[in-house]
Design a protein that fits this description.
With 323 residues, this protein is of the alpha/beta class. Helix content is 45%, strand content 11%. Strands 1-6-5-2-4-3 form a six-stranded mixed β-sheet, sandwiched between helices. The longest helix is centred in the N-terminal third of the chain and has 29 residues, at 72-100. The chain binds adenosine monophosphate and magnesium ion (MG).
Length: 323
């Protein structure tokens, strides 16, 4: 496990409850009312999103119960294990439905965007890692290759979409074409400006084709990025993760925040909203993203497909077989 322990984050320490007396309160996380505590409403942003007003070390949607407040990190880690099991079951049902019904187009696509060190890789490992690799398609997008540059910016994205029954994860995405491309002036404004509309139309098409989009921006602070870059420099086992260019990119922080603001403002239709997950605390980030994914699955109302054969008859046939 290469992720650093963030329990020493100053903001975290400040939130620890002073009263640690034993509580008689039972853990009610499996109570039916739990469904009402889904964090998506507090994480969803609309066209009026103000990134600078979102506390990157906040924990919106975390249940406000004594058992959680006592040690939120421990609670969230334990809860993540359970969420992971539920995600794996949902994913299996999705896969099973596509396998037994070739007409079922449903799939789920998690789009992860963040500044460098924002935790995309950790989220993939801890959240997507709970699912069966056989039904997963994880794609990381770097600078386009010369072949990709010969096509429009959505070409490589289309090629990476999950097939029906699959869960896709995009580690960066088509949004880089209005983020890095805009901030680092890789193309002119005349080229990137129409892309918001093109992205909206593209995503509308994806949703119409059976894709449930879960778009997540992992939101870290400038200070947290500094801490994480330093941690990479301080640890020889993390040097492979360090990219000297990240320091150059860091100098463009305000321009990136502005570009992110425009993404949230212009590409948040009801069928493909953005969620901004405060990501300074890794345990909260993982819990929140797992929850968002699970919520997306729940809306699909998946069930295991009924057998396309007579189960009793098959059982009888099986019992009759001899060598
Ligand atoms: P990483 O995610 O750390 O492996 O870095 C991938 C790099 O690829 C980042 O610096 C991104 O900004 C860059 N990148 C991703 N998509 C694009 C794109 N469409 N155009 C230019 N650079 C990109
Ligand atoms: Mg990087």
């Amino acid at each position: 496990m290469s992720e650093s322990d963030d329990s020493r984050h100053p903001a975290y320490a400040a939130e620890m409850p002073s009263d640690s007396s034993p509580s008689a309160e039972s853990d009610d996380s499996r109570h039916p009312a739990y469904a009402a505590e889904m964090p998506s409403d507090s994480l969803r942003v609309g066209p009026d999103a103000d990134l600078s007003a979102i506390d990157t070390s906040g924990t919106p949607g975390l249940p406000d119960r004594k058992s959680v407040r006592k040690d939120p990190k421990m609670w969230a880690r334990a809860e993540l294990a359970e969420l992971g099991e539920r995600l794996a079951i949902q994913q299996e049902m999705l896969f099973a439905n596509a396998k037994t019904n070739p007409e079922d187009p449903r799939r789920v696509l998690l789009v992860l965007q963040a500044m460098d060190c924002g935790g995309k890789d950790g989220t993939v490992k801890r959240v997507a890692g709970a699912m069966n690799p056989e039904g997963l398609r994880i794609v990381a997008f770097g600078p386009p290759t010369s072949e990709e540059l010969e096509h429009d910016f959505l070409w490589r994205i289309r090629n990476a979409l999950p097939k029906p029954g699959f869960v896709g994860v995009f580690n960066r995405s088509h949004y880089e074409d209005v983020l890095v491309v805009r901030v680092r002036k890789l193309v002119s404004a005349k080229v990137w400006r129409p892309r918001y509309q093109m992205i909206n139309e593209f995503e509308e098409e994806l949703v119409a084709s059976g894709i449930t989009l879960v778009k997540v921006m992992l939101h870290i602070s400038f200070e947290e990025q500094r801490r994480r870059l330093l941690a990479r420099l301080d640890d020889p086992t993390k040097h492979w993760k360090y990219n000297p260019e990240d320091v150059d990119t860091r100098a463009f922080w305000p321009a990136y925040q502005e570009a992110y603001h425009d993404v949230l403002a212009r590409c948040s239709p009801d069928h493909a909203p953005w969620y901004v997950v405060p990501a300074d605390r890794k345990w909260y980030r993982d819990w929140a993203v797992a929850h968002l994914l699970l919520e997306a699955f729940m809306k699909l109302d998946l069930h295991y497909p009924a057998a396309a054969f007579d189960v009793a008859r098959e059982r009888a046939r099986l019992e009759r077989t001899t060598t």
